[in-house]
Amino acid sequence: MGHKAGEIRVLVLGLIKEGDRTFLTQGFDSVTGETFYRAMGGGVEFGETSRAALEREFLEEINAAITNIKYLGCLESIFVHQGKKGQEIIQLYECDFVDRKFYETEQINFNEGKRAKTALWVNIQDCKERKIRVVPEEYVKYL
């Protein structure tokens, strides 16, 4: 996702959980060598609501329809990724997959632009105990 330095991005993320697990996408910082996880979602485009953007992102990325969409709140994140400072305003929603097959799939490989990405189910307790790094950190309290 191309964005200019010094720009604040508006993102939308979808929190999906089932039992003791939650659905996240895997990211990698080649500068720090660190793997991290984030809820699925993406940038809100001009003229679109964050809720519409959430539905569009799930369809674009993994061809999944979502339902039971409920607004949770707004997160602000200032961070460094790939050695560059970034800032995001995140609209966070809770939602569910329409199709049961997504709950039965351990992981899904998909493409985001030119990048190959992985989405997978992870244990919520591992997130809370920081065994895996979830960004932004504030997100964990919603799990």
UniProtKB/TrEMBL annotation:
What are the entry keywords? Hydrolase
Q: Which InterPro entries match?
A: NUDIX_hydrolase-like_dom_sf, NUDIX_hydrolase_CS, NUDIX_hydrolase_dom
Question: Would the keyword Hydrolase turn up in this protein's UniProt record?
Answer: yes
- Annotated ranges, domain Nudix hydrolase: 6-143
Origin: domain of life: Bacteria
Q: Which GO terms describe its molecular function?
A: hydrolase activity
Listed name of the protein: NUDIX domain-containing protein
